[in-house]
UniProtKB/TrEMBL annotation, chains A, B, C, D:
Gene Ontology BP annotations: potassium ion import across plasma membrane; regulation of monoatomic ion transmembrane transport
Name the UniProt record assigns to this protein: Potassium transporter
Gene Ontology cellular component list: monoatomic ion channel complex; plasma membrane
Membrane topology: Multi-pass membrane protein
Keyword Cell membrane assigned: no
Pfam family, one: IRK_C
Highest taxon, organism lineage: Bacteria
Record localization: Membrane
Length: 326, 326, 326, 326
């Protein structure tokens, strides 16, 4: 029997669904104590049910690893690989490593271990050298492996070192402050590093829970318009302002209503790192507990510095109380 | 005699041609058993008539090769190159390789072979060393070649390792499911790896055969609008929906009509890989046999995992029967 | 005395100038025998008056050099550098290179030369080794220089190998052919290599000389609209068509009028190379002598190949006479 | 007590603020002797109050360093590292470095120093070789460190060498010249290097001080429209023109009014470097003192060069007096 797709003219439900804003988290995350975006920009989501080896992206892991751990892994790997090859040389027979002296009475294992190290790094002093087919074969293989590992290390080093990691610092709090003749939701940012970010674009979204007529809760997302969402240059600090007009999703919001709705302010920044000429993305979020009412940021210009224009990075969190416009 | 281009005001045939959608396959592929896009995203097209050496892009080949084959080629190449150089040293005369011992009674060929390996990898133990003009020249050349090959291997390693290969997993089937108060064509995707894809854009196109009044068949392409074709983030699974309204090319389609038209659903995804900050493209296609009628996907949230939001990757293909809206 | 900028309301001359299309060549290139874009995509322009060393971009030069010349330079450089260091060792005194044997009666220069080669490549067999402060210092420096040069070679190798050089082949001729119920200016392209180009955008511009009322000639540029200027995929050949309607700059053009105007068809292609996920740009131009009147391209599908869809690359230039629509 | 955000319908002050152009410098930089953008494109801004180590981006620093300083640092680092390791070997005991000869009466320190150099560069001649556990361990570690440093140097070399540094040369002066039937603000640019920049986009902004009714000064930014702000190709010089019509912010400006307002013309160029297929950004600024009144640029075409079209780079600053249109 032939199946047929029934169809209807465009429904109002569809129009409504198409206009619903969604960042990609969907409507079903309704647990109230779970942040969507962590302070370091990662998502609060785990993908399970797939084997670890299948899901891990080794390059990604080795690139984002801290430098201390990265070097730890390299040294450990070097140590273990030498132990493996030392055992191989002992298995073949220490007598095939010509030139081992007994002068310092070092055990055969360490002699084989250091010979291995000299081969892996391609130093090859030659006081000890392999003789016979098998010792020579293993040494030849080890030198090749050494070179490939150097190639790998070179790539990783370059990948880590040359990756753009923008260090945009966000003010500790997001504040509701008087703004012109109305009020605004404000936070501010500064680039901590001495290279330049240019062409910044900023987007802010309010994530909060809505109660359906049925009593069920769904998560909704509202864009928060910014007074200015793009700058060409970013040498100074930048205060971002969402003007709270009557059209704002925050109009008439109260401290309690935001807490009830588990409000989270999601911030996305796109910029270009001028050293690498690479686009970078930065995510951040403020939870409703980090919102201050009636506070305004203090200027960050440092007038004590002569000549140049100077901004004091450490002042980014400083604010003072301010009564809101009514 | 001067030739002159006759011209006419814009014809209706031209307007029609300009509005015809074409992905780049043209209208002439009318064989019914041929998929346009394979399951791995490659095209089902061969370019012939050009010499192999001229058409092959070696970098491309060595980059997309599996890791096992890649290492196989490296080891084989190392082995063969040492054989070539060993023969060269034998040709010059084994007596020009000073220090060859007869202790272990190894044939001259292997001594030359291992000396070559020590030179190519720049280990250079020095138990055996070249003397005389020719042996020294060949050894000097071999060391240089060794270094250039290491440079090449380093580049390839880095190129392979640092290339973004997004692993978006598609549901095994595309389904016709009830959607709001109408029906929709749905499939879903998830990213299998632990790094993030952001700013996804998805496009879906229906490719099918049309019969001309003359009886000839031509292939046509229809865009299928999606309820939502962009997300900023992709930490969870994403179900893509083409709402089957009266305007849809699928309105009133039946199982038989799709089979007759050799329907293929072509999917293109653009995203940004956050580790590499590189744009990636993913292609996929569903043939009409992979379409299920009256089925809806089951949720993938895993509520057994405490704390974080968790999605079970292996559940992506799970569906249950569902009666369509009429 | 203060100067003041006089100003006027917007003039019609300004509006006209703002609407004039210009690719960046300006209006003053009026010599008739000079192509603007060469067949290999380079511009027919020289920048003089600047010192060679200041204007040359070494990376660019070493990257676009042919492979044979590239290797030639590397080998020559290696040879010369060893000669320099050999002279340095001879200057210090050959007796500071311990282990030079007189067995094979090789002159001191070559011993120093090969010792230098062993140091530069970091092979360091050690049969010959430096003693004393100066020989050791020079050897230490040479090894460091060797490593830095290897680093440079590695970078260049990778840069050359991993650079996307799209090989789009253009049909030898551009033709005026019957097209639907009118005529069209057509050329066709195919990608010769086995990796994929995607998201192609094509632009065509007519460059020709116009005579001003004063009798002076200026070069003008007219965009030529294409029936289709974008494809998502490019696995097959693609015929680009500029429909010659009454609005076309080519309407009523004759062979003589194009020759008189020194007509050149400039073509720009933007695409994404899928292996590198890098945008590539290709330029090409057809001069009026390469235009064929009343010819249409023959299909390139190869039906003798079973199974896959097959295109014969070498057929790209094939055409047959066709009478134009009137 | 629940706080509530008061809100108002959109205010006229907000609209005005939203329409104010801002490049990212803000309105508060009112010191008259401070340029915003230096001649080399850097910003005249310092970020203070953060620790040096925290704010410095080492990759960025090492990449923008001059070549002479870069090599100086490498050689110094090599020298110091060898001194450190030489001391370590002396501490362990010079007798553990086998093969040190007293023939040339070199002090033990230098023998250890050169042995260290041979290990760090992985040359490893082997005349001197480590014996015993500790000497061997230090040597094994040194060889590994040597390899990692080579990896780092390789990455930096490639990063420096392959970075696109466009060398767009700006005319020394910006001029007010007659243009068509009105006047224009003009400057011109040329690319000094032999590789190509394509798809250039140029933006010009006037930065000047405005006096508020209160007498306070604020810095304002006005976009200056260009007659043409994009070219596809850039093989020749390009003269950029802001037509001074009645709508221009410069209408009726005088030499004195520009000086009083501390006028600075900020220029931003975006282009694609064809060798690297990378987007590049160039910044430049002209201060009011660099503005010439009634001068027009002389042509740069060099007609003495036969065959090709030739442009004389060194003529970029040449101008002649010209009386303005009134």
């Amino acid at each position: 029997m032939a199946k047929k797709i029934p169809s209807r003219s465009k429904s109002s439900m569809l129009t409504q669904e198409e206009n619903r804003k969604d960042l990609g988290f969907g409507t079903k995350i309704t647990s109230e104590r779970v942040r969507l975006i962590n302070k370091d920009g990662t998502f609060n989501v785990r993908r399970v049910g797939d084997s670890f080896l299948n899901s891990v992206n080794w390059y990604h892991r080795l690139i984002i690893l801290g430098w201390r751990k990265f070097f730890g892994i390299i040294f450990l790997f070097y140590f273990l690989l030498n132990i493996v090859f030392a055992c191989l040389y002992l298995f073949i027979g220490i007598e095939y490593l010509e030139g081992i002296s007994n002068e310092h009475q070092q055990p055969a294992f360490w002699e084989a271990f250091f010979f291995s190290a000299q081969t892996l790094t391609t130093v090859g002093y030659g006081r000890i050298s392999p003789t016979g087919f098998w010792a020579n074969s293993v040494a030849g293989l080890e030198a090749l492996i050494g070179l490939l590992l150097i190639a790998l290390a070179t790539g990783l080093f370059y990948g880590r070192f040359s990756r753009s990691v923008p260090r945009i610092r966000f003010s500790k709090n997001i504040v509701v402050a008087p703004y012109l003749d109305i009020n605004g939701l404000m936070f501010r940012i500064i680039h901590e590093r001495d290279n330049e970010l240019i062409d910044l674009d900023v987007e802010m979204t309010l994530s909060c829970l809505d109660t359906l007529p049925s009593g069920a809760k769904i998560r909704k997302y509202y864009p928060l318009d910014l007074e200015r969402d793009h700058v060409n240059f970013f040498p100074l600090n930048w205060t971002l302002v969402h003007p709270i007009t009557e059209d704002s999703p925050l109009a008439n919001a109260t401290e309690k209503s935001l807490a009830d709705a588990d409000a989270e302010f999601l911030i996305m920044i796109r910029a270009i790192d001028e050293t690498f000429m690479q686009q970078v993305h930065v995510r951040f979020s403020y939870h409703y507990e980090e919102l201050l009412w009636g506070a305004k940021f203090e200027p960050m210009f440092d007038t004590s510095v002569q000549g140049d224009i100077a901004v004091r990075v450490s002042d980014i969190d400083r604010y003072q109380p301010a009564s809101l416009n009514t």
